[in-house]
Automatic annotation (TrEMBL), chain C:
Compositional bias (Polar residues): 14-24
Pfam family, one: Molybdop_Fe4S4
Chain segments annotated as coiled-coil in the UniProt record: none
GO cellular component: cell envelope
Higher taxonomy: Bacteria, Pseudomonadati, Pseudomonadota, Alphaproteobacteria, Acetobacterales
Cofactor(s) in the UniProt record: [4Fe-4S] cluster
Major subcellular site: other
Protein family according to the UniProt entry: Belongs to the prokaryotic molybdopterin-containing oxidoreductase family.
Protein's recorded name: Anaerobic dimethyl sulfoxide reductase chain A, molybdopterin-binding domain
């Protein structure tokens, strides 16, 4: 599948934003980040909403008729994309309320709005993941680890961002929780993606050229000539292919530079190393890692329509 | 709207039956579809860079060719591919706006060009590659089963069929109600064992494909006449005709 | 032609309320007109729906006898041919060097003045210095007539490089041929064998026919090196080596004779198998039929000895040697024929390896053919009367039918291969019987049709009497001078191609360039892309077109070209006469030329203009008629010198070739009630238009079969002016005209071949079909060029007519070289590799595609997809010129070098261009050579004021006129 930059950026940025919002929405009512650090919370929510909004705007660029995007909110009964839109929209009021509560110091409001915003963030991530996980023609997306993967990426990148922010407040006193979450998130990301890639590489059952044409009874089916000698929308959209070697290198980059390194950096920060630079670097690497992972998520996905082509 | 309509068993299911045993890959269905629909329900069907490198356009029907099996025993098969108007079309249910819909009255899957946002998700959801993005107007288009022909009262009744069917020079395409077990197309499917494409995905395609028939190596049980005299056996094989009495 | 199946039932229109998005009954357009398609040569009837003067939709005309409502991929894309930006806009006069593409637009008055000036000088001095050749032209009855009126013998259409072998082989054997002159009895045949047919003729009728076979479960065998298209749906594919079909057919003949599975009754009644052939080696009558005083061929009657072979009560003896009362020794044709084909060289074992078909398969095919022919006869309960005047209660037929085309025709042994196929048909008794191959009226014709070709004694300002392209009966009819040298520029009807019935367009430019046999002044071409895909060796052709003499004048001083599109040939002409598209003109698919007859009756058709040209262009035929009048050609002016015809429609209506016989056979007579012969009808075209732009006769059922000996049919044909006499047409196993050429080569007769050609004429003018290796293979090291290379025409392109069409060029924008996967493995080549294809004539670079369904010793590609950069309204980066290629670049127009003279790479009997004899070697290109085809000649410059090319084409006839949808 074509890793359209607008979509790759959208899911990375909004995933990180929702991850950040989720952690804050959960941690703040639990007492984390109060008092002197309350401006940290507000800053984090602003960053989260900025990432989410940038991502959503980026996703509009993918549409043929963005001015009609509002229509996408109508079909929540059947469409995960519509549900994602609805969830995203519904997450804004509690998130903004949460921001106000943090900004003006209304702990009671924050205790309600935070979890609501966190729930909204989690729901949106779930809807996003389900858009992909429900596409039957793409076997790599139908894998059971896809949804956990989206959650893990959001949680990991959100935690890494939160840890990096926390390093700049209150002399790092708030750092341990998000740093630990980032480290755990990194490990979870490694584990999940490792398992996912292994499963994907092992081959997955699905339609074949023989079942796509119904010609299997005759023998092995090979394409002879395509309908048209040049490209078309489907080939550009579904026909993207990444070289195995290239993909393997990117996987290593994602696993080690994108997931392991931030986890190690977080552990180092927990162990007392200079937190701000380490965790800032960790957050950047985590975002990069998720970006690479998301790119691969498309680039390595194969669509059944390509069975009809060479 | 993108929830599927309630369609009772036996509801009308208009669709195509495509005979791969007879299709010679002439592309008539593809270009006749293109010319009808260029000015039809989903008009236009734009072509990009039409006179230079990278020419590509919107086509509702594309004809592939394949080889199945090896060597001289194998087959070359021409394979027209278009929307199968599935019974459970995920292209409809994934649509966030309701632009994609399956008609309750005949099962045809259509796109409302007024409300489509051009997100492309339906194309992802279609395993068969039936969705065609019009990147000029930013909306998804697709085979309409020539909805502006098949009911068109300004067209003679015998011609009220999809353009691809009416033009097919080998009569390899058939149109009708596959929901009616007594219809000509249903009977044809039953007789020839018509198949679904990618049945394992469970989309319930309405269009059926008739596979190339078994080829017996000989039509008759004709055996070479091994025991007939050969020129080597008799000095003059022409002798046998010398005395043959013939008349006009 | 089978009737089209009845479409399935229509459905009641749902109420609009159900789905407000859908407009169920929009009118298709605001007008609909019938005419005849010209996206290929198939001549299907079409209905063109118009909206605001633009084409909304083109569909097959359900009432039309050719296509019965269906329309192929090309015909359905006619809109984009109509609106192509490659359409020429106005007359052009060359202002730069030839090939530079520098033209200025001129008025039609200036264009016609210029052409008239050049042509008048030629006609006043030496009319043969005009070479007038038309390409994919369907108006040869006009163009040929015009050339004869001009007085030049140098006229032909493209048949010489297309299918003259098929036409000549058929017309000299059975008085008809495949495609235009006959077709299988699709409704009754049980076994259908197709040889060497890709998509070529006859496109939609063959497709309709194949679907009939499928419906009925008849068996379809395709003999073809490549398994695509029709061959893909064959019940049996015989992947033969190119050029060996004749050998396979004669091995089948061998088997049928060996097993005595031939229809002796049929042979005795309807063929010349009974004729007695004189055995007089070295004598002037050797190999000719023994005849009585009245010139009637003799047969040996069991009781009476030598008698008139046409006696109704003949009891013929088919084998043996006899002595005539005058002492001459004779043998029946059947004897000579059987003797030859029972020879060991035609045994299946002997041919198997060469053909690439195992011997037991050949035997099985023969057995199967015989079983169907003789054990499953088809009976039509229809009495009929033969030419002996005897009534038959029913029509009994042999349901084995054949069709063959280019794959057979385009070889230097193609004429004899076609003859071999017709011999096979005759042996089976499967000619125009129920279930077999059938003639399309007005065929059969006498064998050969009379008279010989016109062209002798061309004089200034004098028309030639007769048809330029006609039928030699022997050496006396050849167009040669006293030394045996050719009179025609292309050497057709000379000793190099005695039966060059369709001319040899592929040699014209080369011969003119070499002044062999003489230089010419003006080359006038219509719709023939001779600077590219219509030429063997286009590089050499363009070299000749741009070559200058010492005095600075071009070797061919004037080139006039008429075409509707900016083809590769346009920049090489001096004067361009832009033609209309097929939707903008009147045309005539004439009974005098290549009509649309069917086994059910004669027929012809017209085109009518359905839209007005939006450019300064004129129909070529109108222009030709005006030029004829300006030049004062007698048939084109009245007594007072004023133009006889206003335009082409006027000519179609009022021209009479013979009294009562004109271009169209339908609706003749003052009131339109006559068919075939009748005085001109001023409303004839109107009547055609009212009838869907065609006319069709319907034969009564008793005339449907055995037309060569069907008394009623032959008499009716004569009455309609379709035939000169109503005698039985005796099918010719033994061809006397060929034997006459052979006798000349042996020194008999006044008209003698030059010595250098004697052996060639003697060898190839064999009265019985035989197989020989393609001539091109003789003079080269086949081990060095081990692979045969052929082309096929794709179903979605008609030669070069596809690349200017925005839709069709998406289907075939470039072409690959297809090779058997097994062969590639053997050679270490892989999918998508770039390779060099080298022949004795040159080399080219292209990209490979591997497949299973191709003879392992053969490679092939689609014909004419490759285009020269800059042409056909395409940008220079188009895949047609960067990845597409022409096999023509490695095909030589000459046979391998011979001593002192050169010979066309053609069939030695007919002059048919031997495109498919090509042998090549293939080598992998270096990695840095990949990506661009070679040769890649410099881009050609477009003429001035060609239309803009839109970046996005949004064709929608329903968009408001003048709106953005206009392409």
């Amino acid at each position: 599948m074509n890793p359209a930059p607008s979509i790759v950026f959208f899911t990375t940025a909004s995933g990180a934003g929702y991850g950040l919002l989720f952690w804050l929405g959960v941690l703040r009512p639990l007492g984390w980040g109060g008092g002197a650090a309350s401006s940290l919370g507000a800053t984090a929510v602003v960053l989260a909403l900025a990432l989410v909004t940038a991502g959503l705007l980026s996703s509009l660029a993918h549409l043929g008729n963005p001015q009609r995007a509002w229509r996408a909110l109508s079909q929540w009964r059947s469409s995960w994309l519509s549900r994602e839109g609805v969830a995203a929209v519904l997450t804004y009021p509690p998130a903004l309320l949460f921001l106000l509560a943090l900004w003006f110091g209304w702990p009671a409001v924050a205790a309600v709005a935070g979890p609501l915003a966190a729930a909204g963030a989690a729901a949106t991530i779930y809807c996003t993941a389900m858009i992909y996980a429900s596409i039957k023609p793409v076997r790599q997306w139908r894998h059971p680890l896809v949804v956990p993967g989206y959650f893990a990426m959001a949680a990991f990148s959100g935690a890494a961002l939160l840890a990096a922010l926390a390093a700049g407040w209150d002399a790092g006193r708030l750092l341990p929780v998000p740093a630990a979450l980032a480290a755990l998130g990194g490990l979870a990301a490694i584990g999940l993606k490792f398992a996912y890639w292994r499963a994907v590489d092992a081959g997955m059952p699905g339609p074949t050229r023989e079942s796509a044409t119904g010609l299997g009874a005759i023998g092995r089916v090979r394409p002879l000539d395509p309908p048209h000698t040049e490209q078309n929308y489907l080939l550009r959209e579904m026909g993207f292919r990444v070289a195995r070697k290239h993909a393997a290198r990117l996987r290593q980059i994602a696993l080690w530079a994108g997931f392991a390194a931030p986890a190690v950096l977080a552990l180092l920060a927990l162990a007392g190393a200079p937190a701000a630079p380490l965790l800032s670097l960790g957050a950047l690497l985590a975002l990069l890692g998720v970006l690479v992972e998301r790119w691969l998520m498309f680039a390595e996905a194969t669509h059944t329509v390509m069975l009809y082509y060479r | 709207m993108t929830s599927l309509p309630d369609r009772p068993a036996g509801a009308k299911k208009l669709g195509l039956v495509i005979d791969l045993d007879t299709c010679v890959g002439c592309q008539a269905c593809a270009t006749n579809c293109k010319e009808w629909n260029a000015s039809g329900h989903s008009a236009p069907l734009p072509d990009f860079k039409p006179y230079s490198a990278g020419a590509e356009g919107v086509w509702f029907n594309r004809v592939h060719s394949y080889e199945a099996g090896e060597g001289e025993q194998g087959r070359t098969v021409h394979f027209p591919r278009s929307c199968l108007h599935c019974e459970t079309p995920a292209c409809v249910t994934v649509c966030p706006t309701g632009a994609s819909y399956k008609r309750a009255e005949d099962g045809i899957v259509l796109v409302n060009a007024e409300t489509c946002i051009g997100c492309g998700l339906c194309a992802w959801a279609c395993p068969y590659g039936a969705r065609e993005m019009d990147e000029d107007s930013g909306v998804m288009k697709k085979c309409t089963l020539c909805i502006d022909r098949i009911y068109n009262e300004t067209i003679p009744e015998a011609q009220r069929q999809p353009a691809c069917v009416i033009t097919c020079p080998t009569r390899a395409r058939h149109f009708g109600d596959l929901g009616d077990p007594d219809s000509a197309v249903s009977q044809l499917v039953a007789r020839r064992g018509g198949q679904d494409l990618m049945p394992e995905l469970g989309y319930g395609p309405v269009n059926k494909y008739l596979q190339p028939r078994e080829r017996s190596s000989a039509l008759t049980e004709a055996k070479p006449v091994e025991d007939a005299p050969t020129p080597m056996d008799i000095p003059n094989p022409l002798l046998r005709w010398m005395d043959r009495v013939l008349s006009r | 032609m089978p009737e089209a199946p009845t479409p399935s039932h229509a459905f009641a229109t749902p109420t609009p309320n159900d789905d407000p998005q859908v407009q169920y009954s929009p009118p298709v357009g605001d007008a609909v007109k019938t005419t005849t398609c010209y996206m290929c040569a198939c001549r299907c009837g079409i209905k063109v729906h118009l909206k605001d003067g633009r084409v909304r939709y083109i569909e097959g005309n359900p009432d039309h006898p050719v296509n019965r409502g269906v329309l192929c991929g090309k015909g359905s894309a006619g809109i984009m041919t109509q609106y192509s930006p490659a359409r020429l806009q106005a007359p052009l006069l060359r202002v730069g060097e030839r090939g530079s593409g520098e033209f200025k637009e001129i008025s039609w008055a200036e264009a016609l003045d210029t052409a008239t000036g050049w042509l008048r000088r030629v006609r006043e001095t030496d009319p043969k210095r005009l070479a007038f050749f038309t390409g994919r032209d369907q108006s040869q009855s006009l163009t040929g007539f015009w050339a004869a009126q001009f007085g030049t013998p140098n006229f032909a259409a493209h048949g010489g490089f297309c299918s003259v072998n098929m036409a000549a082989g058929g017309l000299y054997s059975i008085g008809g041929s495949f495609w235009e002159f006959g077709e299988p009895d699709w409704d009754r045949t049980r076994l259908f064998l197709m040889f060497g047919v890709a998509e070529d003729h006859d496109s939609n009728p063959v497709k309709l026919g194949l679907s009939k076979l499928k419906e009925r479960g008849a068996k379809f065998v395709s003999v073809n090196p490549v398994r695509t298209g029709y061959s893909a749906i064959a019940d049996e594919w015989v992947g033969i080596r190119p050029g060996t079909d004749g050998l396979l057919v004669l091995a089948l003949v061998h088997e049928l004779l060996r097993a005595d599975r031939v229809d002796l009754d049929f042979l005795a009644r309807y063929t010349n198998a009974t004729w007695l052939i004189v055995r007089d080696p070295g004598g002037a009558d050797d190999g000719l039929a023994a005849r009585d005083e009245a010139g009637k061929p003799l047969a040996w009657d069991r009781e009476r000895g030598a008698v008139d072979a046409a006696l109704p009560d003949l009891s013929p003896v088919l084998a043996g040697e006899f002595t005539l009362p005058d002492g001459r020794r004779v043998r029946p044709v059947f004897h000579l024929m059987a003797e030859r084909y029972l020879g060991a060289e035609y045994a299946p074992e002997a041919v198997a390896e060469r053909c690439g078909v195992p011997a037991e398969r050949i035997r099985r095919l023969a057995a199967e053919i015989a079983a169907v022919a003789f054990e499953q006869p088809v009976v039509v309960e229809q009495p009929w009367t033969d030419t002996y005047g005897r009534g038959h209660e029913r029509m009994v037929g042999r349901p084995v039918s054949f069709h063959a085309m280019r794959g057979i025709s385009a070889h230097s042994n193609g004429f004899h291969t076609c003859r071999a196929l017709h011999l096979l048909q005759m042996l089976l008794g499967a000619v125009d019987t129920p279930g077999s191959w059938r003639y399309k009226s007005p065929f059969p014709r006498p064998i050969p049709p009379a008279p010989g070709p016109a062209g002798k004694g061309a004089k200034p300002n004098t028309p030639l009497a007769g048809n330029i392209l006609s039928f030699p009966h022997g050496p006396d009819d050849l167009l040669v001078d006293e030394a045996g040298g050719p009179l025609r520029i292309d050497k057709a009807f000379s000793w190099e191609a005695p039966l060059g019935l369709h001319g040899m367009m592929h040699t014209v430019i080369g011969n003119a360039g070499a002044g062999d046999p003489y230089p010419i002044d003006t080359l006038f071409m219509f719709m023939a892309n001779m600077a590219w895909n219509s030429a063997m060796n286009p590089g050499e052709t363009t070299r000749v077109l741009t070559e200058k003499r010492a005095d600075g004048e071009y070797v061919i001083p004037h080139v006039i070209y008429s075409d509707a599109y900016f083809s590769e040939t346009v920049p090489y002409a001096d004067l361009i006469l832009p033609d209309t598209t097929y939707l903008e003109r009147w045309d005539c698919i004439s009974i005098l030329d290549r009509p649309i007859g069917s086994p059910h009756g004669a027929g012809d058709a017209i085109r009518q203009p359905v839209i007005k040209p939006d450019r300064d262009v004129r129909p070529f035929q109108d222009v030709l008629i005006e030029l004829g009048a300006r030049l004062g050609l007698p048939a084109f002016v009245r007594e007072d010198g004023s133009p006889r015809y206003k335009d082409y429609p006027d000519y179609i209506t009022n021209h009479e070739r013979m009294p009562g016989v004109g271009p169209l056979a339908g609706f003749r007579g003052a009131d339109g009630s006559k068919k075939g012969a009748g005085e001109p009808n001023p409303d004839q075209l109107k009547r055609y238009v009212e009838n869907g732009c065609f006319w069709r006769d319907h034969l009564p059922p008793e005339q449907g079969f055995f037309k060569y000996a069907n008394k009623d049919y032959l008499e009716q044909s004569k009455a309609m002016g379709l035939m000169g006499k109503s005698e039985q047409i005796v099918l010719q196993i033994w061809s006397e005209p060929l034997q006459k050429f052979r006798l000349a080569a042996e020194g008999h007769g006044a008209v003698q071949p030059p010595d250098r050609l004697r052996e060639r004429v003697r060898t190839y003018c064999d009265p019985l079909p035989f197989w020989y290796a393609p001539l091109e293979h003789g003079g080269q090291d086949l081990a060095h060029f081990p692979i045969s290379a052929v082309t096929q025409r794709p179903m979605a392109h008609y030669h070069s007519w596809g690349s200017m069409n925005a839709w069709l060029r998406q289907i075939h924008g470039s072409n690959r070289l297809y090779m058997a996967r097994s062969k590639a493995r053997e050679m270490g080549l892989g999918e998508d590799d770039w390779v060099w294809v080298e022949s004795r004539a040159g080399r080219l670079k292209c990209q490979l595609r591997l497949m299973e369904g191709v003879n392992p010793d053969t490679v092939w590609t689609w014909n004419a997809i490759g285009k020269r950069a800059g042409t056909w309204g395409l940008t220079e980066d188009s895949p047609e010129s960067t990845k597409g290629f022409l096999l023509n670049h490695v095909i030589s127009e000459w046979l391998p070098a011979q001593e002192g003279f050169r010979q066309a790479n053609s069939d030695p009997v007919t002059g048919q261009a031997a495109w498919y004899d090509l042998r090549v070697r293939i080598e992998r290109a270096l990695p840095e050579e990949a990506g661009l085809t070679d040769p890649h000649p410099a881009a050609l410059r477009a003429p001035p004021h060609m239309p803009e090319r839109p970046a996005v084409l949004r064709y929608n006839a329903n968009a408001r006129a003048g709106g953005e949808a206009r392409p």
